[in-house]
Amino acid sequence: MTRQRKALLAVAVFVAIIGAAYYWLFIERPQLKGKFNIDLREVRRLASSIPGETPRAIHYEHVMDFKAPNAATVTGDGWTESTLWGLAFQLEYSDHTAILESTMNGEQAKASGMVTGYYPEAYAHVIQAMSKASLILMTHEHADHIGGLAAHPELKRLLETSVKLNKQQVINAQHPELPEGVFANFPEGAFANFKPIEYEHYMAIAPGIVLIKDPGHTLGSQMIFVRKNDGIELLFLGDVAWIKRNVDLVRGKPRFISNKIGEEREAVLPQLAAVHSLARAEPKIVLVPGHDSGTIADLTKRGIMQEGFR
Asked: CA dihedral in degrees (246, 227, 222, 291; nearest 10)?
């Protein structure tokens, strides 16, 4: 074999290896195995099971930006860059509020290595609102969702009065399995006297609010169903879907990203399929993916959400 042919063969082998690696990391999709069920009839029943006022308005704070190629967000997509948002939500009642998600402070954002835009005034609004909230919930225990709680100056009081975390969220908050920047670091002993909530599939946590357990993105992941007093129903997906396109195509994140953040892709895929089916059967239910700037802009335009906490 001539030197030229050997060189061409080496190049061909190299290209084949790179192509196979790219396919495995960014294009390959797990097969849909098993089934994740969302029993909407039961969720709606639970939403009405606790008497009292349901939320009359939903507000949000846009605290930070993440720029990422579409290929890092949806398996098999191209390399056009998009901007994802880091968000916290406030449910407004006549005389109190509830908070969903807490984003993270500037130090945590810097440590994550992923944040490309940060808005400290919006974060300050989140911290102030958490101090006054009667209920604080998280979809999961990654730092960009729970970090603001971990850094809150009144953490001890909030844990005693308003914070409801599930057992696995607490376990990962105390013993993070991945490097700093993925899970938040709570102060040592923060949960010494904290009693986490435990439930199997669904849990009514407040009038009009139901938790739906969906371990996969993290072990403590949960969706949050909210029914407003005008009858509008929303499903906060957390990071089961970063953007609505994950649901529309029933395609999760690529292996490269899932491995980096410790996500179980095989568990998330049936959850995406269930949400996709729910959206087709109940098109009036408003899906709120974890970081979809386009969805939030649309919901703002439609008057379903308002920017800025009260």
From this structure: 40
What's residue 32's pLDDT? 87
286-308 b/e (C-beta count within 10 Å ≥ 16 → b)? bbbbbbbbebbeebeeeebbeee
In this structure, what DSSP letter does residue 197 have? B
What angle, 0 to 180 degrees and rounded to 10, lies between the N-to-C axes of helices 167-174 and 143-150?
80
Tens-place pLDDT, residues 143-155: 999 999 999 999 9
Contact between 57 and 234 (Cβ < 8 Å):
no
How far is Cα 303 from Cα 259, in angstroms, rounded to an integer?
Answer: 37
- Tell me the HSE value of 242 on the side-chain side, using a 13 A CA sphere: 25
Spans of the chain below 50 pLDDT: none
Specify the DSSP class assigned to residue 88.
Answer: E
DSSP 277-300: HHHHH-TTSEEEESS-HHHHHHHH
Locate the domains of the chain by residue range: 35-304
**HEC per residue, 36-83:** CCCCHHHHHHHHCCCCCCCCCEEEEEEEEEEEEEHHHCCCCCCCCEEE
Residue 165: predicted pLDDT: 98
35-304 folds as Metallo-beta-lactamase; Chain A (3.60.15)
Q: Tens of pLDDT along 253-298?
A: 999 999 988 899 999 999 999 999 999 999 999 999 999 999 999 9
